[in-house]
């Protein structure tokens, strides 16, 4: 990697509840700064909405679609710092897509990271009532308003859908370059259409996953502890009840059952505890919400990490972390989990609701087998080739170089 040092403006609208996107922004900024680039941040937070006057709240739908304040502030920053490239992560709700116009008005290229499915689906998840839903793709954005898909509010969903509709028709999105976190996300983004015609071309879209810090050399697989790990939110959409049904069948069939460790919390925590008690599961340990370092320690010693998700996911960082630990992943064969986990190479995959197949994986998991130990080695190799910080910096700067070259042409 050999890139002239650049002046980069990072743009991010944080949600009220901190999440993975905020961590990605902070990590990428640190990565770029450590490589010698000058990095500036334009950031807003949706907590600002709480202090809005009634008049400001009434104007929120218009401001969310286009904010003159953002336009002026971003233009000023670009001029003041002689910005070479603007990298946007999120614009909802305070910043608005006017940031794109601010950059384009000064001939500065824009790269947008796609963290979720917001450009296609107002609730950003393709998930409704616990099931995958693509109605907005097949029947239009009005479907999201009908079902109040954004935060359970028809009025707020209307704001988001109007923003998407306006900027699709205006051509705002067709003038950007994009970074998708997976090939699956790229395929979904290419389904963005207007009047039956695609809005984007494959040449506009790059693929670069998120990265995670190296936890150190993996624990040799023959020294692993006899347990499987679940480290995702305790939510039905993460497949926690599919996992418990599978584990119940596994306990009934196994002569010497291994352990299942649940190290998380979430809205279904009490229901999970009740299920364990009602079905007399004796080899399940609920550790609760433990620290990230403790999770990684458990992950490093686990036989496999379980992710029986029921939806597409954005970019499950638990997979990158598991691979960094040399720990295979057992997950659903849909969306990004099905894309990131290579069946038989870095883990095993199953149909999302197939508890029988999942139970069978547990029953026949042999830590001494060459196949399982090869999955462990392949997982670590995949981390080094795709999810390590230095590799991620290389991919990111190559994208910047290509976008700048293309814009100059």
Q: What's the layout of helices and strands?
A:
Blueprint: E1 7-14, H1 20-34, E2 38-45, H2 54-65, H3 68-81, E3 85-90, H4 98-105, E4 110-114, E5 127-128, E6 131-132, H5 135-139, H6 142-146, H7 154-170, E7 177-180, H8 183-189, E8 193-194, E9 197-198, E10 205-207, E11 227-230, H9 240-253, E12 259-262, H10 269-278, E13 284-286, H11 292-301, E14 304-307, H12 317-324, E15 329-332, H13 335-340, E16 347-350, H14 355-363, H15 370-387, H16 389-408
Parallel strand pairs: 1-2, 1-3, 3-4, 4-7, 7-10, 11-12, 11-14, 12-13, 14-15, 15-16
Antiparallel strand pairs: 5-6, 8-9
> Order of strands across the widest beta sheet?
2-1-3-4-7-10
Rounded to an integer, what's the Rg over CA atoms? 22 Å
How much of the sequence lies in strands comes to 15-25%
Number of helices: 16
Q: Kindly report the average pLDDT value.
A: 95
Q: What is the approximate shape?
A: globular
The rounded distance between the terminal residues' Cα atoms is 22 Å
* Strand count: 16
The percentage helix is 40-55%
Report the sheet with the most strands, covering strand number, pairing sense and barrel closure.
6 strands, parallel
- Structural class by secondary-structure content: alpha/beta
Instruction: Note poorly predicted spans.
Output: none
